[in-house]
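Summary of Year 1 activities. Much of the first year was spent building the evaluation harness for sequence design. The harness presents a backbone, in tokenized form, and records the residue chosen at every position. We chose the following record to illustrate the format because it has been used consistently in internal testing since the harness was completed.
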């Protein structure tokens, strides 16, 4: 029987570096937008047609689902984020493909960055608003972008990788 690592595997460093980079970039951007640029005072800043910078506090999860200002919901979402992060870390430790480890790191860093927002601010700070021809995408942040990119890579892997060929 092959022993599988539980907390640190041969590609864990790749995922850890990606997670740390996403976390630092996201939290740095949020700090800048809130404290230095003071996006709340600017309301909406048009960057290019179809893309504005705005200030939105998301009290729910993706797309504002399950939004609530209650402290119970806030703490449930924080605990769930940490639990998901632990499971992602264990999954990361078992990886044998570098791009999968990197993708898990993207998701992990984004999840922890958004959990930090909930812990510090009670909600997740979102800034990027995309829209075109009357269609408005939800407002999101760098952490959300990393999560989506990581999930897309993981989906790609799930459709293209054959576990039977692993040695």
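For this record, the design step produced the sequence shown next.
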């Amino acid at each position: 029987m092959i022993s599988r690592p539980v907390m640190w595997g041969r590609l864990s460093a790749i995922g850890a570096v990606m997670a740390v980079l996403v976390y630092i970039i996201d939290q740095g951007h949020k700090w800048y937008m809130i404290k230095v640029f003071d996006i709340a005072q600017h309301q909406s800043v048009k960057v290019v047609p179809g893309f504005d910078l705005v200030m939105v506090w998301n009290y729910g999860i993706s797309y504002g689902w399950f939004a609530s200002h209650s402290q119970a919901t806030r703490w449930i979402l924080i605990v769930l984020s940490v639990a998901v992060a632990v499971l992602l870390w264990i999954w990361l430790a078992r990886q044998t493909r570098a791009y999968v480890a990197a993708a898990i790191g993207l998701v992990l860093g984004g999840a922890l960055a958004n959990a930090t927002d909930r812990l510090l601010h009670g909600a997740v700070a979102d800034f990027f608003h995309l829209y075109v021809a009357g269609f408005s995408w939800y407002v999101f942040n760098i952490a959300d972008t990393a999560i989506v990119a990581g999930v897309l890579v993981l989906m790609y892997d799930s459709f293209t990788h054959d576990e039977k060929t692993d040695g």
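The longest strand covers residues 124-132. Quantitative recovery figures across the full test set are reported in Table 2.
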